[in-house]
């Protein structure tokens, strides 16, 4: 079945459901668009800030310095930056993963490690603060260090796994 037909069926179903429940579908649609626009505008500033941060890091020469000194003969410092950003933002980590794919390839160590970083860890610090705040839990100071420890353990295990099974 064609996807455009499914979209048409879904829209028709929503309108028919709204008519049976005596809902003004147009007003509900306009309200949803207004709320969605507000959500997108609120999210845009955070996404723009992370993209701007990544571009500043790339343009400053820090990555070149790290690549020639600290990370010489190991892995790319872009992967290290992704490891630092992943607990805060999943979308920024995804953008960095795509950058690593285009620069090193998906089958390289950096590409595999970037995939593991993106899949084994989550934006844990963001989720802890957001969800604990949503259900009004004030005492969560031990959870954040535990999340960071689990992320670090996952990174170490993924390096071991990649070397054992891929190289």
Query: How would you spell out the order of helices and strands?
Result: HHHHHHHH
Rg measurement, Å? 22 Å
Measured as a percent range, the helix fraction is over 70%
Oligomer classification: single chain
Number of domains: 2
Distance between termini? 43 Å
Estimated share of beta-strand residues: under 5%
Largest sheet: none
- Count of strand segments: 0
Overall body shape: elongated
Contiguous helical run count: 8
What structural class do the secondary elements suggest? mainly alpha
Low-confidence stretches: none
Mean pLDDT: 85
Keyword list:
167 residues, mainly alpha, 2 domains, 8 helices, 0% strand, elongated
Question: What report would you give on this structure?
Answer:
This protein is an all-alpha fold and 167 residues long. The protein folds into 2 domains: 1-44, no CATH class; 61-165. The protein has helices at 3-20, 25-60, 62-68, 77-85, 90-104, 109-120, 124-134, 143-165.
Quick rundown:
This protein has 167 residues and is mainly alpha-helical. It contains eight helices and no strands. α2 (25-60) crosses α5.
Record the SSE blueprint.
Elements: H1 3-20, H2 25-60, H3 62-68, H4 77-85, H5 90-104, H6 109-120, H7 124-134, H8 143-165
Helix pairs in contact: 2-5, 4-5, 5-6, 6-8
């Amino acid at each position: 079945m064609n996807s455009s037909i499914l979209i048409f069926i879904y829209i028709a179903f929503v309108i028919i459901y709204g008519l049976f429940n005596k809902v003004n579908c147009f007003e509900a649609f306009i309200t949803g668009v207004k709320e969605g626009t507000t959500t997108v505008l609120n999210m845009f500033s955070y996404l723009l800030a992370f993209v701007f941060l990544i571009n500043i890091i790339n343009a400053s020469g820090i990555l070149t310095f790290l690549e020639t000194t600290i990370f010489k003969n190991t892995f790319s410092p872009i992967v290290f930056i992704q490891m630092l950003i992943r607990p805060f933002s999943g979308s920024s980590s995804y953008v960095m993963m795509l950058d690593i794919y285009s620069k090193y390839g998906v089958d390289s160590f950096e590409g595999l490690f970037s995939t593991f970083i993106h899949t084994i860890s989550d934006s844990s610090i963001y989720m802890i603060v957001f969800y604990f705040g949503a259900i009004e839990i004030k005492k969560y100071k031990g959870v954040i260090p535990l999340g960071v420890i689990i992320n670090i353990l996952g990174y170490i295990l993924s390096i071991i796994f990649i070397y054992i099974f891929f190289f």
